[in-house]
Amino acid sequence: MRQPATRNAAAAAELAELARRKEIALRVLDLDVTDDASVEHAVAGALEAADHLDVVVNNAGVMYVGPLEGFTAEQARQQFETNVIGVLRLNRAVLPHMRARRNGFLIQVGSVLGRMALPFTGLYAASKFAVEGMSEAGACRTWHPGDGGRARRLSDCHLESRRECH
């Protein structure tokens, strides 16, 4: 979560309270998926605190709305940097640790707009289509038979069933 001590303090506190009530070991870390150093620092912090990673949720995303011709190339880059490259960056940082333990669970939070586009959502939909494609391919290529790892996509309250790929 970006800025859990300042801008997102209320959300971080809400998560911490829910974890306390449900007796779940959860630690909110400062993480900006658009920054390599931030991702590496957060993963190192999680591993230092817990010694391993059981679950990683890729939930970061930004949504720009408007006609496609209204966006600059820089705005498109920003959207894809967060929504697509951020997923790749975090997965690359955590997968070696999960593979070493032969256990882990990756959750990619997608969107129904990763399967269909609506007016004025073309740029966002394009980024979410990319996440869907990476997730589908990754479910079969991330974990090898017998690794014990799992990967799932979550798209607007629709949980994809586990893909069995051999």
Structural class: alpha/beta
Helix content: 40-55%
CATH class of the domain at 53-159: Alpha Beta
Strand order of the largest sheet: 1-2-3-4
Low-confidence stretches: 154-166
Distance between the termini: 34 Å
Cα gyration radius (Å): 17 Å
Q: What is the molecular shape? A: globular
Strand content: 5-15%
Describe the 3D structure.
The protein is α/β, with parallel strands linked by helices. It has a domain at 53-159: Rossmann fold, CATH 3.40.50. The chain is 47% helix and 11% strand. It has 4 helices and 4 strands; from the N terminus they run H-H-E-H-E-H-E-E. A 4-stranded mixed β-sheet has the order 1-2-3-4, covered by helices on one side. Helix 2 (36-50) runs parallel beside helix 3 (73-101) and helix 3 (73-101) packs parallel to helix 4. It is globular, with a radius of gyration of 17 Å. The relative contact order is 0.12.
